[in-house]
């Protein structure tokens, strides 16, 4: 069976990146991630990310480009990370998260990231530095 893809979004706005604190399931609750979710059959990764960011945070965003890397989450599920830009709205933890925070370049290590997400931080720092 083909792997199902989870798309996480490095949402950047005014030089900061959005971190979201998961509220469920129990094994990851309280940890911070790049918000996103599973791509539905027939959906591109960009469409999946834009849909998930609207459902979970209430914002309109545009997926910009995929970051290098791919991380197995569990059998049949792999995580890919995309950068995204905020088009409209202020992110709120509507679904799946208990809190959201904008982090500047000096704050990237200030939250307890999920392991895979932590590996992406050097690339996120480069994106923030590049403006
Ligand atoms: N969204 C997201 N999930 C991540 C990240 N890093 C990471 O290990 N995960 C894991 C946590 C979850 O087990 C899984 C993603 O599931 P999800 O709950 O976000 O997906 P979803 O919104 O489509 O969920 P559902 O509709 O199936 O309930 O991937 C990340 O940066 N973003």
Protein model, in words:
β6 (71-74) and β7 form a beta hairpin. 21% of the residues lie in helices and 40% in strands. It has 3 helices and 8 strands; from the N terminus they run ββββαββββαα. The chain has one domain: Alpha-Beta Complex (Nucleoside Triphosphate Pyrophosphohydrolase), CATH 3.90.79. The chain is of the alpha+beta class. It has helices at residues 45-57, 115-119, 121-130, and strands at residues 4-13, 16-22, 32-33, 36-38, 60-66, 71-74, 77-88, 97-103. Strands 1, 2, 3, 4, 5, 6, 7 and 8 form an 8-stranded mixed beta sheet that branches. It binds 8-OXO-2'-deoxyguanosine-5'-triphosphate (8DG). 8-OXO-2'-deoxyguanosine-5'-triphosphate (8DG) is lined by residues 6, 8, 28, 33-38, 73, 79, 96, 114, 116-117.
What's a concise summary of this model?
It is an enzyme of class 3 (hydrolase). The protein has 131 residues and is of the alpha+beta class. 21% of the residues lie in helices and 40% in strands.
List the helices and strands and how they pair.
Blueprint: E1 4-13, E2 16-22, E3 32-33, E4 36-38, H1 45-57, E5 60-66, E6 71-74, E7 77-88, E8 97-103, H2 115-119, H3 121-130
Parallel strand pairs: 1-7
Antiparallel strand pairs: 1-2, 1-4, 2-3, 2-8, 5-7, 6-7
The structure holds 8-OXO-2'-deoxyguanosine-5'-triphosphate.
Give the total of domains.
1
Ligand roster: 8-OXO-2'-deoxyguanosine-5'-triphosphate
Number of helices: 3
Number of strands: 8
Based on CA atoms alone, the radius of gyration comes out at: 13 Å
What string gives the helices and strands in order? EEEEHEEEEHH
3D shape:
globular
Largest sheet composition: 8 strands, mixed
Helix percentage: 10-25%
CATH topology: Nucleoside Triphosphate Pyrophosphohydrolase
CATH class: Alpha Beta
Percent of residues in beta strands:
35-45%
Kindly report how far apart the N and C termini lie.
40 Å
Task: Determine the mean pLDDT.
Answer: 97
Using the 3D structure, state the CATH architecture.
Alpha-Beta Complex
CATH-assigned homologous superfamily: Nucleoside Triphosphate Pyrophosphohydrolase
Structural class: alpha+beta
List unreliable stretches of 5+ residues.
none
GO molecular function: 8-oxo-7,8-dihydrodeoxyguanosine triphosphate pyrophosphatase activity; 8-oxo-7,8-dihydroguanosine triphosphate pyrophosphatase activity; 8-oxo-dGDP phosphatase activity; 8-oxo-GDP phosphatase activity; metal ion binding
Keywords: DNA damage, DNA repair, DNA replication, Hydrolase, Magnesium, Metal-binding, Mutator protein
Cofactor: Mg(2+)
Domain Nudix hydrolase: 2-126
